[in-house]
Write a structure and sequence with these properties.
Radius of gyration of chain A: 23 Å
Distance between the termini of chain A: 26 Å
Oligomer: heterotrimer
Shape of chain A: globular
Helix content of chain A: over 70%
Radius of gyration of chain B: 25 Å
Largest sheet of chain B: 6 strands, mixed
CATH superfamily of the largest domain in chain B: P-loop containing nucleotide triphosphate hydrolases
CATH architecture of the largest domain in chain B: 3-Layer(aba) Sandwich
Shape of chain B: elongated
Number of strands of chain B: 20
Strand content of chain B: 25-35%
Largest interface: A-C, 109 and 113 residues
Structural class of chain A: mainly alpha
Strand content of chain A: under 5%
CATH superfamily of chain A: MetI-like
Number of domains of chain A: 1
Number of strands of chain A: 0
Order of helices and strands of chain A: HHHHHHHHHHHHHH
Order of helices and strands of chain B: EEEHEEEHHHEHEHEEHHEEEEEEEEHEE
Structural class of chain B: alpha+beta
Chains: A mainly alpha, B alpha+beta, C mainly alpha
Chain lengths: 285, 356, 294
């Protein structure tokens, strides 16, 4: 790197801007995160552990894991397929498809919950049919899984697509000319090249799935010990002024977020290019 | 306005990996007023760094830059009054051609009317009348290049600095723009420094060449000086083609196998030497069938237009390229595989240093 | 850079064709196309269509009645105003943070860069309770403002702060790569032409990064409009005052007012969709501009 002495700001301006940016990040981001842990341990580690081992908390943790375990693999399979489709083939309506895939990002989580209530709820489109067969979707686990799947829908596509696009199709085409079938090409040529980006997409998708609040809140019915996920449990405890309990469960979610960010550092996030190193996912091999 | 560079040294901090040698080390030269001076050298020789230091885009570690004899090393780029044409042009993509050219005048708060007049003047100077409203990406590479010139000239700079101005263009466009630049210079007479790695470009465009290598200045002079009197083996090999032959000092002669030319004065007897032989400084003659000695074998004849390149293999095993007119070769009547007599008309001899 | 050969290939192929890109060599188009459409339809399009279907069952006057009742209007106004304020704050601070991260070296820079992503990864409910407890009148920061009679949590400023928190990564992460990719020669050219740093910033840099700044702004705005998790804690949820649209939908749903919830949600959905289209258009143009610059 050259040192661009001619195009650098005077030191005073540089330090002022830096100080403002750091202060902003410290106040707006670091402080709230730190406060989660501080308040969780306000009454010592004993109270913290007690709050986490509370049966209702454990049940919320279990449900959160179940919902993520179902929705993340679904979206992973879809994400890779859709990314492959958009990156490798040229067809009419490609742009429209991409916009539609982005839809769940743009829709308020509350609306994401509402649509499943309108579809499967007691007064919903399929409500009568479901109640005849005594299947519960809304205020039950299937509804939570569906809502979670909806809100985390675009994550894997959005991580994998830029990697596939930047790599081009030369190697895949070479494999085909050598006689490989479509699946062989994918597993032997494409997957090894995108695996780190894919892993990051899955981790991101998982973080969002476990942390989703609005959509799940609408479909869950907040039945304690049954349809409460961790974020919903946080809400209930907070509204009951059980701050240590609320922040203890919240601290687990915050740890998950921090682990996700660590994964981003380690796996290299080519799509945002924030570090200016596209293809870092390849180097990580 | 003349440009003087004195003892310029610039070292870049190594960003990663091994620490670097200085990009420019103790470089001194002067670019005369009103002329085109070329900074010539292979890539990485430091020529662009020198140019950027003159513009104020790099702060030298030591040394001074003088414009018309006035030290301006400490003056920031924006007050140096130089024009700079970047290698990739660096046109402002969101501005029209007019706005690009007007930029330097607008930041000087020149009245609107004068700016408009000056821009029109420049558009006609670079022959882009009628394209003022276009955006850079709507122009061809050669046209963008001319916009870059116009933008640099708009503020009436005292010095025009060109960093590989034709580097990004097709071979044919390059040649056209070279003669265009000569005409432009004849009209403006602005002192110009041009960085290039293309010796043909340097020899054609300028009467004053500064040849650089690995951060140091090897030789300064006219193209003829550099060609006919290279001061180092590097200059001899970089400017124009030459065959390098090894030999030894024998008396007042430099013996190169059975060939010989005059040795430089004061050369030590028996010292090793390198002889640089230009392709047109060799004469060949047909060896008669009876002659016992034949000095070279024609390996290949390559015809290029009216000239022929003769590739010879000498008895020492060394290869040598000779260039001669087609008619001359026809008169000799030699063919590939023939043995020929070789005579050196001239060679530049460098005696190897034995200093301990 | 990789976009160029593909674009060239695209212009060669007739636009009406459903054939494969380039030589049409890779197998699997029908399968991937079919599966993608099926899954997209099942999880996203069908449920969203049900919302529009339900809304269509209401008469226009019914819909108008619902969406124009004072409480709904107040919620729209509040959501819109707070989101816009937050998005503007994000544009300002996001640009500052992106600039500092892209241009300067300072101790702790890597940590700061990582902090930018926190709002993206942190569940909104966690952000909500953390910000609320800090900004409440008895909280660490709220206390300072309470002393001078300013209420932050359970009032408009708290909502704006939460929305700013949530939208922060969008501006930074759209502007930062553009700043990093900008050719330094552009600024050097401006400097040699006599421009000051401020002139260079306003006339050369800002126009170059403006499309990305606008994209980031729109993304932050869209995100803020739909945000629910953090706001529900900090807003105080006073109907007609600090009630946001998503909360109004939930409230109606809890009162079994499905028609009301549907009508308001449909309006929001339409709005989000328009925003999304605008953003995609912006991003396409930004990417095209970046491809040209390379």
């Amino acid at each position: 790197m050259r040192t661009h002495s001619a195009i650098a700001e005077p030191g005073a301006i540089r330090w002022t801007l830096t100080a403002f940016a750091v202060a902003f990040l410290a106040l707006f981001v670091a402080l709230p995160v730190a406060s989660v842990f501080l308040q969780a341990f306000e009454h010592g580690p004993g109270a913290y552990l007690a709050a986490l081992t509370d049966p209702e908390a454990l049940s919320a943790i279990r449900l959160t894991l179940v919902a993520a375990a179902l929705s993340v693999p679904l979206n992973t399979v879809f994400g890779v397929t859709a990314a492959w489709l958009i990156a490798k083939y040229d067809f009419a309506g490609r742009g429209v498809l991409l916009t539609l895939i982005d839809l769940p990002f743009a829709v308020s989580p509350v609306i994401a919950g509402l649509i499943f209530v309108l579809l499967f709820g007691a007064h919903g489109l399929l409500g009568p049919l479901l109640s005849r067969h005594e299947v519960r979707v809304i205020f039950a686990v299937p509804g939570i899984v569906l809502a979670t799947t909806f809100v985390t829908f675009p994550f894997v596509v959005r991580e994998v697509l830029p990697i596939l696009e930047s790599q081009g199709s030369d190697q895949e085409e070479a494999a085909v000319t050598l006689g490989a079938s479509g699946l062989t090409v994918f597993f032997r040529v494409t997957l090894p090249r995108i695996k780190w980006g894919l892993l990051y997409g899955v981790i991101l998708c998982n973080a969002r799935a476990m942390g989703e609040f609005g959509a799940v809140s609408v479909v869950s019915g907040h039945i304690r010990g049954e349809t409460n996920t961790m974020p919903l449990h946080v809400e209930i405890l907070y509204n009951e002024y059980n701050f240590v309990g609320a922040f203890a469960v919240a601290s687990l979610l915050a740890l998950l977020a921090l682990a996700t960010l660590l994964a981003k550092r380690l796996l290299g996030d080519g799509s945002h290019g924030g570090q200016g190193q596209p293809g870092a996912s390849q180097e990580a091999r | 306005m003349s440009v003087t560079v004195r003892n310029l040294t610039k070292r870049f901090t190594a960003s990663a990996g091994s620490p670097r040698a200085p990009a420019v080390a103790d470089a001194s030269f002067e670019a005369p007023d009103g002329a085109i001076t070329t900074l010539l050298g292979p890539s990485g020789s430091g020529k662009t760094t020198v140019l950027r230091a003159i513009a104020g885009l790099e702060q030298p570690d030591s040394g001074t830059i003088l414009l018309d004899g006035v030290d301006c090393t400490a003056i920031p780029a924006r007050r140096r009054g130089v024009g700079f044409v970047f290698q990739g042009y660096a046109l402002f993509a969101h501005m029209s051609v007019r706005d690009n050219i007007a930029f330097g005048l607008q930041v000087r708060k020149m009245p609107r009317k004068e700016i408009a007049e000056r821009v029109d003047e420049l558009l006609s100077l670079v022959q882009l009348e009628g394209l003022g409203a276009r955006y850079p990406k709507q122009l061809s590479g050669g046209q963008q290049q001319r916009v870059a010139f116009a933008r640099a000239l708009a503020t009436r700079p005292r010095v025009l600095l060109l960093d590989e101005p034709f580097g990004a263009l097709d071979a044919q466009v390059r040649v056209e723009l070279r003669s265009w630049l000569q005409r432009l210079h004849a009209q403006t007479h602005v002192t110009t420094l041009l960085v290039t790695h293309d010796q043909e470009e340097a020899l054609e465009l300028s009467q004053h060449v500064v040849l650089m290598r690995a951060g140091r200045i090897e030789q300064v002079g006219t193209p003829h000086d550099l060609y006919d009197h290279p001061s180092t083996p590097f200059v001899a090999s970089f400017i124009g083609g030459a065959t390098v032959l090894r030999g030894r000092v024998e008396g007042t002669r430099a013996a190169i196998g059975p060939l010989s030319v005059a040795a430089p004065d004061g050369a030590l007897e028996g010292a090793g030497l390198q002889a640089f032989v230009r392709p047109h400084d060799v004469r060949i003659a047909r060896a008669t069938d009876q002659s016992a000695v034949s000095l070279g074998k024609i390996e290949k004849l390559v015809r290029v237009g009216g000239f022929v390149k003769v590739e010879l293999r000498l008895p020492s095993g060394e290869a040598m390229t000779v260039q001669m007119a087609k008619t001359e070769l026809d008169a000799l009547g030699v063919a590939e595989g023939d043995r020929v007599l070789v005579d050196l008309l001239a060679a530049k001899v460098f005696v190897e240093d034995y200093s301990i | 850079m990789s976009a160029l050969p593909r674009d060239a290939a695209r212009t060669e192929a007739p636009p009406q064709s459903w054939r494969l890109r380039r030589s049409g060599l890779l197998p699997g188009f029908s399968f991937t196309f079919g599966f993608t459409l099926f899954y997209l339809g099942l999880i996203v399009l069908f449920p969203l269509a049900v919302l529009l279907l339900k809304a269509a069952q209401l008469s226009p006057s019914q819909i108008w009645g619902i969406v124009s009742e004072p409480r709904a209007l107040a919620a729209y106004r509040f959501s819109f105003g707070a989101s816009l304020t937050a998005a503007l704050l994000n544009a300002l601070f996001g640009l500052l943070v992106a600039w500092v991260l892209a241009r300067y070296r300072f101790p702790g820079k890597a940590l700061c860069d990582a902090l930018v992503d926190v709002p993206f990864a942190l569940p909104t409910a966690v952000a909500g309770i953390a910000l609320t407890s800090l900004l409440a009148p008895n909280g660490l920061i709220g206390r300072l403002f309470d002393a001078v009679g300013i209420q932050i949590a359970f009032a408009r400023p708290g909502v704006v702060i939460a929305l700013t928190f949530v939208g922060l990564p969008f501006v930074v992460r759209t502007v930062q790569p553009v700043l990093l990719e900008l050719d330094p020669a552009l600024e050097e050219a401006a400097a040699v032409l006599g421009a000051s740093r401020l002139q260079t910033f306003l006339r050369v840099l800002l126009p170059a990064i403006f499309p990305s700044l606008l994209t980031g702004f729109a993304l932050a705005f869209a995100r803020a409009l739909g945000e629910y998790g953090s706001i529900v804690f900090i807003s105080g949820n006073l109907p007609g005052k600090t009630e946001i649209v998503p909360l109004l939908i939930v409230t109606k749903l809890e009162q079994y007012d499905y028609a009301g919830a549907t009508a308001i949600a449909a309006v929001m959905l339409l709005l989000s969709f328009l925003l999304l289209l605008a953003i995609n258009l912006l991003q396409t143009r930004t990417r095209a501009a970046r491809a040209v610059r390379k």
